[in-house]
Amino acid sequence: MRKKLLLGLWFTFLLLSIGYLFWQNEFKYSLPTPIPKNYKAIAMGSNIELGPCCAFDNKPIFIHFFNPECPCSRFNVPHVSDLIKKYGDQINFKIVVLNKQKKFTIDEIQQKFDAEIPVYFDESIAEKCGVISTPQAVLLDQSHNLYYRGNYNKTRYCTDTRSNYAQMAIDSLLSRKGNPSFNALALRAYGCSLPKCTK
């Protein structure tokens, strides 16, 4: 009887541990990011004044909001690298690193993406664009109007090509088809919450 009780407790502990690990590493990142209390919504089409970092950009601007410590951000690095390679001659790509817990250098970030593109550590850029989590994509047209703000894909691994939302937004802007329409999975923030970029 005692053996059965110990075995039952052991299996219960194992199940709870597996459930906890699943929550920590997978399920919580599939839930929408909670909207902060003092969040100021930025409407699509709004003119975004980013200051010196973008003052002389005469092409569309793509900003990748990135946290190297966020699992969701790490998983989409290859996808973002592909976008930079594919569209880098038509769009000015920039990376904004949002992480208060660890310092990173520009070289470290550029190496992760295998791209020599501008890297910023300015949290105010996220606020100006209405970004509340990482990873998030922001696409501004040539006049710096907000064309797209949202997710890269409906899967955190960016494996579903039918839901490459950020790429669809780029294609739409470059082909001048007008603003694309996306479902809630594209526009509702998922991933690691700001300001600490943890869930």
UniProtKB/TrEMBL annotation:
Residue ranges occupied by any DUF6436 domain in the UniProt entry: 57-192
Gene3D superfamilies: Glutaredoxin (3.40.30.10)
Listed InterPro entries: DUF6436, Thioredoxin-like_sf
Protein name, as recorded: AhpC/TSA family protein
Residues of the signal peptide: none
Taxonomic source organism: Flavobacterium anhuiense
SUPFAM superfamilies named among the record's database cross-references: Thioredoxin-like
